[in-house]
Amino acid sequence: MSKPRPEMIAETRAKLIAAARHAFGTVGYAQSSMDDFTAGAGLTRGALYHHFGDKKGLLQAVIQEIDAEMTARLNRVSSSAPTRWQGFVDECVAYIQMALEPEIQRIMFRDGPAVLGDISQWPSTNGCIAALSRSLSQLKADGVIVDVDEEATARLINGASSHAALWIANSDDPQETSKRAVQGFRTLLERLRVKGP
């Protein structure tokens, strides 16, 4: 008995994304070929064109998958913190530190911007800014941070964390750069806190 069409389509997409993710993560976007993806998935080039249009479309799908996984991880980081403020800081720092992970470093912070353009213009960025704005609004309501424009501050934090991750990913010494970036970022965030009497 054959599988229902929607299930077959989802399986084909998943196979192509998994094969592309492996290739992009190991040899990089420029060095991987459409044959790598199709052979790895046991599918034809026609299937790739049908589902993703081209190699760039496949990269976008891989980035969406990794981005969703990163978001889930960051949510776990913030929800396990003892306070809302600590969760906010931990989540921001964890995002920056993810640039040390080889697959994320190569796909999200090297090849992604090189192929798809400025990371601040990616569709997922608006969701990140909205989530940051909500967190800032809650922190402000709790009296933890000073009175700020949530959207403006969210955009600045998003830009700083993205730039820090790009700096780490493209650094000659990512570990050392990460230490410096995290220290600087923590100092910036600390300026938002309401100072005690």
UniProtKB/TrEMBL annotation:
Keywords from the UniProt entry: DNA-binding
DNA-binding region coordinates: 33-52
Tagged with keyword Hydrolase: no
SUPFAM superfamilies: Homeodomain-like
Pfam families: TetR_C_41, TetR_N
Start and end residues of each HTH tetR-type domain: 10-70
Name of the protein in question: TetR/AcrR family transcriptional regulator
Organism: Sinorhizobium numidicum
